[in-house]
């Protein structure tokens, strides 16, 4: 330790500027970390050998491999053991969980996937090259991201099924919001543009900081590029494992698009105190604008009528608008057809159009968050010339959702323990043995003796006696 401190001091003194000194220290500390890890791995490898020798294994050779870790590349020399009639093994690799021909540590893969979920693979390549003592190509980062995304999706589908929480111990909340919406990607690698189907639930909104920034309470996001049914299925599994909704008012909201109707929400909720479904106000206004584009004055009146939940006024506005269409207008038939479609849409969804403040609910805000929470996904996967297959988009979206849900690390460690190196018992035993200090033997002092000579002083033994006397 004193030698390292001395070397650090000398490095700082030899630098003309702080920047130059910090760069030199960065290289020095990387080398020190690599040397320490190399020495520790070597000692642990030796501690693993006796167990295999007891089983009849013999040392075959000592191959080396370089593993890129967050501290830099570390060369590991470990023993290969061979036993007649059986396949050779490398105890260190088996104990730690190192896969054959794998060049990057699980932590490197995990961090690369995190960076890649926020920006392009080429940007992730630049960031890793800048911040670490090694480099990764954008194609390698892509492979790592897809692998980890697949792992997270598998964990998301299976983890709730393994939950054994008793019904009485599950979370109880007075109100729960559930929303669903789809995000169509602008460019894909397949004929059909991929779509990210999303379902999100939360317990309300709280305001934090001086700016009173709205933050969702216990928000959870789920997605699928297969179908909206798959997204609802994932949300349903987690709803059941987390909540007891028997005394909860569930408020659902959607734009009414294909796959997001009221029944989809009703099926995943199960038994609850009360279920209130809303048609998203933004999309209702867009529908009115789309159908009444030919009469702006009446369009504005229709929006107000829907906002105040006045069906009689809605019918009067439709009748008035139809009377304002001139019979000699060449598009008169088209306009009347648009009005007919709008009327059918409003009648079909009228119960869901009732405003929040008119429903005697204990909350007055919290709706419309699903579409506003598209941003992490759309920022990563839309525009800027980015193209995704449905599978690739699903893997990246899974990483984004896991990070937002706070389950990213848990998903990796529970599904693939070696991503956080959940070490095997024999490895832990080797570490404990390597850390044990040898027992100090008590000193018995200096032994004093003499060489006995029972022959002449000119004999060889006599000459040796003279040398030590």
TrEMBL record:
Xref: InterPro entries: UPF0236
Family recorded in the similarity comment: Belongs to the UPF0236 family.
Name of this chain's protein: Uncharacterized protein family (UPF0236)
Species of provenance: Alkalibacterium putridalgicola
């Amino acid at each position: 330790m004193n030698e390292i401190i001395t070397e650090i001091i000398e490095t700082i003194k030899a630098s003309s500027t702080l920047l130059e000194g910090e760069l030199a220290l960065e290289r020095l500390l990387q080398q020190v970390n690599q040397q320490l890890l190399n020495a520790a791995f070597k000692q642990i490898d030796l501690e693993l050998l006796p167990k295999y020798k007891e089983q009849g294994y013999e040392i075959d050779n000592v191959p080396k491999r370089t593993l890129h870790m967050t501290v830099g590349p570390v060369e590991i020399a470990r023993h290969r053991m061979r036993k007649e009639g059986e396949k050779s093994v490398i105890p260190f690799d088996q104990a730690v969980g190192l896969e054959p021909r794998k060049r990057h540590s699980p932590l490197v893969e995990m961090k690369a996937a995190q960076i890649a979920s926020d920006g392009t693979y080429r940007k992730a390549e630049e960031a890793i090259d800048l911040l670490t003592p090694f480099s990764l190509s954008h194609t390698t980062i892509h492979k790592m991201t897809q692998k980890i995304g697949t792992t997270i999706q598998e964990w998301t589908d299976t983890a709730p099924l393994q939950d054994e929480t008793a019904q009485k111990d599950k979370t109880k909340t007075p109100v729960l919001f559930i929303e669903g919406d789809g995000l169509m990607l602008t460019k894909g690698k397949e004929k059909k543009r991929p779509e990210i189907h999303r379902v999100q639930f939360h317990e309300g909104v709280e305001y934090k900081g001086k700016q009173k920034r709205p933050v969702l309470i216990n928000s959870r996001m789920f997605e699928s590029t297969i179908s909206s049914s798959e997204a609802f299925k994932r949300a349903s599994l987690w709803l059941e494992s987390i909540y007891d909704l028997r005394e909860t008012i569930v408020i659902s909201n959607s734009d009414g698009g294909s796959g997001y109707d009221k029944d989809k929400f009703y099926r995943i909720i199960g038994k609850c105190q009360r279920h209130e479904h809303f048609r998203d106000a933004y999309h209702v206004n867009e529908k009115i604008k789309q159908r009444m584009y030919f009469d702006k004055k009446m369009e504005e009146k229709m929006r107000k009528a829907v906002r105040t939940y006045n069906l009689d006024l809605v019918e009067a506005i439709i009748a008035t608008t139809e009377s304002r269409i001139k019979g000699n207008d060449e598009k008169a038939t088209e306009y009347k057809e648009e009005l007919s479609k709008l009327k059918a849409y409003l009648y079909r969804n009228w119960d869901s159009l009732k405003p929040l403040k008119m429903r005697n609910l204990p909350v007055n805000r919290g709706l419309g968050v699903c579409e506003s929470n598209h941003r992490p996904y759309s920022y990563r996967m839309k525009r800027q010339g980015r193209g995704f297959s449905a599978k690739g988009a699903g893997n990246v979206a899974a990483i984004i959702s896991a990070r937002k849900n706070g389950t990213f690390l848990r998903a990796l460690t529970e599904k693939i323990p070696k991503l956080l190196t959940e070490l095997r018992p024999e490895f832990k035993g080797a570490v404990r043995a390597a850390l044990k200090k040898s027992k100090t033997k008590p000193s018995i002092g200096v032994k004093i003796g003499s060489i006995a000579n029972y022959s002449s002083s000119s004999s060889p033994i006599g000459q040796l006696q003279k040398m030590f006397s």
